[in-house]
Amino acid sequence: MSSNSVCVFVENLAKSYKQHAVLCDIDLSLNRGEVFGLLGPSGSGKTTLVRHITGLETPDAGEVIISGKKVPDLSLLSEIGYMAQSDALYEDLTAKENLEFFASLYGLGKKQQTARIQEVMKIVRLSGDLNKPVKNFSGGMKRRLSLAIALLHEPRLLILDEPTVGIDPVLRKSIWEVFSQLQESGVTILVTTHVMDEAAKCDRLGLIQNGGLIAVGTPDDLKSRTKTHSIEDVFLTFGGA
């Protein structure tokens, strides 16, 4: 693998909280334009790992390199779109006001803001709810708005922590179609998930348990290595629960 094809390097990453190891010497690389899935049970370290990749947390050891720059680096903010597990929305504002606020943080001009807001709301199928207060949104609608915000500035690296929680299967399918379109345009996507059929759609998977990566590979490769026929069986074979 050439370094030119690599978007993200994670090397010897370790983190502990109150002497409890949460990440244990994580080594990982993401290729440009791939969909990489992190699969693991609650508490396995998925969210902590993605927060370190975005630069929101500082490791005890190791480092993260994105596009040749060591994280954290303010110049990387324009390259990364991050959707957290919990929706960071202003509930008393409308969807449009939320989008305008975050667009201004990303440095989008007024004309660009208007165009991108229309585009991302169409992607998540919320165009008709632009002027509705977020406090009146369902949980699934809030997740979709959070995804729209992460897409606003057209990032080259999209980091999504459980993006489809609370979203119905039909819309979930359409969102994954969007991921495929983004991937075709060269966007790298890192997604954490509990959903096995979503994991099967990823180009590669990292199985994480107790803060350590226990296996990395394509879905077919992992099934072949474990002599199983489903991602769920793969995970159970490697020791997941």
Give a brief rundown of this model.
Strand 9 and strand 10 form a beta hairpin. The chain has 8 helices and 10 strands.
How would you describe this structure to a colleague?
Keywords: ATP-binding, Nucleotide-binding. GO terms for molecular function: ATP binding; ATP hydrolysis activity. This is ABC transporter ATP-binding protein. Helix content is 34%, strand content 27%. It is built from 8 helices and 10 strands.
Q: Given this structure, which CATH class of the domain at 1-79 and 159-168 and 186-241 is correct?
A: Alpha Beta
Terminus-to-terminus distance: 32 Å
CATH homologous superfamily of the domain at 1-79 and 159-168 and 186-241, by name?
Answer: P-loop containing nucleotide triphosphate hydrolases
Overall residue-averaged pLDDT value? 91
Shape: globular
Q: Give helix % range.
A: 25-40%
**Strand runs, count:** 10
Across the major sheet, the strand order is 6-7-8-3-9-10
Low-pLDDT runs: none
What is the radius of gyration?
A: 18 Å
